Amino acid sequence: MSTARFPPSPTRPILNEGPFRALLLENIHPSAEEMLKAEGFQVERLSSALKPAELAERLKGVHLLGIRSKTTVPPESLVHAEDLLAIGAFCIGTNQVDLTAANTHGIPVFNAPFSNTRSVAEMVVAEVIVLTRQLFDRSREVHTGQWRKVATGSHEVRGKTLGIIGYGHIGSQLGVLAESLGMRVLYFDVMTKLPLGNSRAVATLDELLAQSDFVTLHVPALTSTHMMMGAEQLAKMKKGACLINASRGTVVDIAALAASLRSKHLGGAAVDVYPEEPEGNSDGFVTELQGIPNVVLTPHIGGSTEEAQASIGKEVATSLSKFFRTGATTGAVNFPMVEAPLIPGTHRILNVHRNIPGVLRDINRIVSDLNANIHAQVLSTDSNIGYLVMDLDQDVSRPVCDAIAGLTTDIKTRIVS
Ligand SMILES: NC(=O)C1=CN([C@@H]2O[C@H](COP(=O)(O)OP(=O)(O)OC[C@H]3O[C@@H](n4cnc5c(N)ncnc54)[C@H](O)[C@@H]3O)[C@@H](O)[C@H]2O)C=CC1
Ligand SMILES: O=C(O)CCC(=O)C(=O)O
Fold first, then answer.
1. What ipTM was assigned to the predicted interfaces of this complex?
2. Nearest ligand, measured from the Cα of 123
3. Domain ACT, which positions (predicted)?
4. Top-level CATH class of 21-111+307-416?
5. Residue 173 alpha carbon to ligand 1 centre in Å
6. In the beta sheet, which residues pair with residue 414?
7. Which of 296, 322, 345, 364 is deepest in the core (most CB within 10 A)?
8. pTM for the full model?
9. Ligand 2: residues whose CB is within 6 Å?
10. For the chain, percent helix, then strand, then coil, each to nearest 5?
């Protein structure tokens, strides 16, 4: 997260005059395109991510941006994105977007907090079994004509301990599935969480590492989770235990993991996410983990099921459409929350401004100078910005917006109706 750097002010008002354009990257599900087209958007859909400089160029004249996990949105991509109203992260993680920069440009970021939860949890269950039976290695051998019928080192998962780091949506859903296989479930979280089923919280990460046969990570990418599994933590895992990471690539020290696997301290690993990931499917990929026995490597597909993608497409497109039509910011991860129903016969203006004293007074004076009446007004703020939704009885939105855009505190102003 960067510290707040506001765009130069006054900015021009963004008015509700089309055509409106949406740019969807990274093969976002067609369900999103359909919904946004129905909303009147011209939609451009690309299969891969864009690098920041190209993104900055492509954002000119774009009103909605849709991304998944591979498109990073740094402050410089937003500097000239004057028309950009909102960003949809068609995934759970939003660490790829500089959320503070988006906030200070008046751009809410929406995500899909639950739509791929189940898909990730199911993949991890599969990996627990695949690792403990060394199924990928046996399969590869048979594919290459070798018949190695062995039981040594192969185990049932029943009765084994699964240690979950990060008992949020995915971690807790996974715990329920693992218990149905007869596993004992422990978890470590920095927050106090309701244990589901017979799962049990442990007080420290070390305790979890010492007791678990499988350790699986389900934490967000934060400064506090950066490299939280390094050589020291891996050494604290039981000999022969397996590590699973389907959270973010920055959470595990890959070199230390490779060393631990090669030294046979760890018995296996499944890795879905990497510190650097290719932008598209045609790019090559190299990791130190390649070629190590009993290591399952997947290309960040934890949430990549048809069910999850269709559901994410609809969920995020719904948030974007609702924001576009009414200004509702419910579910935005970087913005003050306002949701107010449209009132027939009134005229709605949305305004994002610097959060300093006197802004509401200045805006109300503008309205009053135009002899207009405020029907309803909802203001919500965070430490950087204020977000105002204002319904007027008279149709004076254009002169009001023009006058607000002249205030030095203005960041973004839009007429909704
Ligand atoms: N591989 C894939 O395709 C996917 C990966 N993900 C990743 O999984 C992550 C987790 O997703 P959810 O479960 O939905 O998130 P969530 O926000 O529901 O849960 C995260 C949990 O981690 C805990 N936490 C934070 N810092 C911690 C720390 N230092 N130690 C222990 N616990 C800590 C939080 O308190 C929270 O309970 C996402 O942030 C995303 O990065 C999500 C979906 C798909
Ligand atoms: O499928 C994707 O693009 C990203 C999945 C993911 O990592 C997330 O939802 O946070």
1. 0.99
2. 1
3. 348-417
4. alpha beta
5. 12
6. 14, 350
7. 296
8. 0.93
9. 68-69, 91-93, 116, 303-304
10. 30, 20, 50
